[in-house]
Amino acid sequence: MGISATGLFSRQQKGLAKMAKANEYPERIAVLQHLIKAISCICGDLEDDLGLAQATFSQHLKALKTACLTQGTVEGTNVCNCIR
Question: CATH number for the 12-83 domain, one of 2.60.40.1120, 6.10.250.3280, 1.10.10.10, 1.10.520.20?
Answer without folding.
Answer: 1.10.10.10
